[in-house]
């Protein structure tokens, strides 16, 4: 009725306003539908060409983004593409070393799955094998062991014969299988026995499988709140031949990229100043030294020598130097540090400086059996 009472010009003006509002509403609906349509379809092409530069824009937390979308990334870019993306994100400081290892592990798990392992030789390269603590190797090994199919031991051995000639920074095989055996058996003594069923030779031994078993078991103990002193006691309680292997897998006694210098120093002292056997002390010291080096690179871009080391007995300073320089060389290869020439010079002792320089120059990273991550 109000419309009919308006003058002719006013009726025309009012109608025009109403029409504009209707058109504006229709345009909004169309644009919303177009946006939602594009959002639902963007995953395919985006994952197919996803780069580190795009990742910087898309993801406030690159690790979470990659972890949540890894299946699609591998689907569109294959294992090699996903590994390349992970490496570049790590090198540019977008994810820490543990996150890099975790992603590489999951990519390896995919590469070991049915329909993909037949092409595993295509993924054997220096770039894929020798970064982030052998994460890709661990994932392949774990995936094969978890499958439990009748020929998984032969597949594991075949993979090791391909990977070990290429491996330089992580020169051991079957670690991932040890993790998988704990998952399968839910009992670490039984998991150790499963390690003994693997195919071995002069180069391929079950030692890294034992390490994987202890790493998985100790990580579970840590999640249950077991104290560090109890973890050391656990390693000291098993037979002597396995004590050092167990202590190497103390997972850095929970040193993280956010740990302070004070926490790192106290944790290093826990390893050295205790009543447990030397096999446990040295394994613990190596484990914490690796984690401390990773923390330094994440926080500062280089490895820093803490004064607490100066007071350690010489045999433990040497263990620390070997473990830390080994990790330093891994970071140099990963491209996360350029040089660390000042590290050795920081030792007050000339003998320690010389030993440190020799360790950096040598190509042998195997003076102490080492693993990297859970």
Structural class: mainly alpha
Nearest-integer average pLDDT = 84
Q: Which overall shape is indicated by the principal axes computed on the Cα atoms?
A: globular
Percent of residues in helices:
55-70%
Beta-strand percent range: under 5%
**Helix and strand pattern:** HHHHHHHHHHHHHHHHHHH
Instruction: Provide the gyration radius in Å.
Output: 27 Å
Unreliable stretches covering 5 or more consecutive residues: 1-44, 366-374
Written description of the protein model:
The protein has 374 residues and is mostly helical. The protein is built from 19 helices and no strands. Helix 3 runs parallel beside helix 5. The N and C termini lie far apart (77 Å). The relative contact order is 0.07. Mean pLDDT is 84; it is low at 1-44 and 366-374.
Fold topology:
Layout: H1 2-5, H2 8-41, H3 43-49, H4 52-58, H5 62-91, H6 97-111, H7 126-129, H8 135-147, H9 152-163, H10 175-185, H11 188-195, H12 207-223, H13 228-237, H14 240-248, H15 261-272, H16 278-300, H17 314-334, H18 341-345, H19 350-361
Helix pairs in contact: 3-5, 4-5, 5-6, 6-8, 8-9, 8-10, 10-11, 10-12, 11-12, 12-14, 13-14, 14-16, 15-16, 16-17, 17-19
Structure summarized in a few sentences:
The chain has 374 residues and is mainly α. The chain has helices at residues 2-5, 8-41, 43-49, 52-58, 62-91, 97-111, 126-129, 135-147, 152-163, 175-185, 188-195, 207-223, 228-237, 240-248, 261-272, 278-300, 314-334, 341-345, 350-361.
């Amino acid at each position: 009725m109000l419309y009919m009472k308006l003058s002719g010009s006013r009726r025309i003006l009012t109608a025009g306003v109403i029409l504009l509002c209707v058109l504006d509403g229709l345009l909004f609906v169309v644009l919303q539908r177009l946006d939602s349509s594009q959002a639902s379809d963007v995953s395919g092409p985006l994952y197919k060409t996803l780069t580190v530069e795009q990742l910087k824009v898309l993801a406030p937390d690159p690790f979470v983004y990659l972890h949540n979308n890894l299946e699609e990334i591998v689907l569109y870019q294959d294992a090699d593409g996903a590994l390349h993306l992970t490496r570049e994100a790590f090198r540019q400081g977008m994810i820490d070393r543990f996150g890099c290892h975790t992603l590489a592990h999951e990519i390896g798990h995919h590469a070991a799955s049915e329909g993909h392992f037949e092409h595993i030789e295509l993924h054997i390269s220096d770039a894929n094998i020798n970064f982030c603590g052998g994460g890709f190797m661990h994932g392949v090994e774990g995936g094969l062991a978890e499958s439990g199919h009748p020929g998984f031991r032969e597949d594991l051995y075949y993979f090791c014969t391909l990977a070990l000639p290429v491996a330089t920074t992580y020169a051991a095989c079957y670690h991932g299988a040890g993790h998988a055996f704990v998952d399968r058996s839910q009992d670490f003594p039984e998991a150790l026995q499963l390690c003994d069923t693997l195919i071995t030779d002069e180069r391929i031994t079950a030692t890294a499988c034992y390490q994987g078993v202890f790493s998985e078991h100790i990580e579970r103990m840590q999640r249950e709140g077991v104290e560090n002193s109890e973890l050391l006691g656990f390693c000291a309680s098993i037979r002597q031949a396995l004590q050092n292997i167990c202590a190497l897998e103390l997972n850095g006694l929970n040193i993280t990229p956010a740990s302070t210098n004070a926490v790192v120093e106290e944790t290093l002292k826990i390893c050295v100043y205790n009543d447990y056997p030397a096999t446990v002390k040295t394994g613990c010291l190596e484990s914490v030294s690796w984690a401390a080096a990773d923390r330094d690179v994440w926080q500062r871009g280089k490895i820093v020598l803490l004064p607490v080391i100066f007071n350690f007995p010489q045999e433990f300073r040497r263990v620390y130097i070997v473990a830390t320089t080994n990790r330093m060389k891994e970071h140099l290869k990963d491209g996360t540090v350029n040089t660390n020439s000042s590290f050795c010079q920081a030792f007050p002792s000339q003998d320690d400086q010389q030993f440190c320089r020799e360790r950096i120059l040598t190509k042998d990273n195997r003076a102490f059996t080492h693993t990297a991550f859970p």
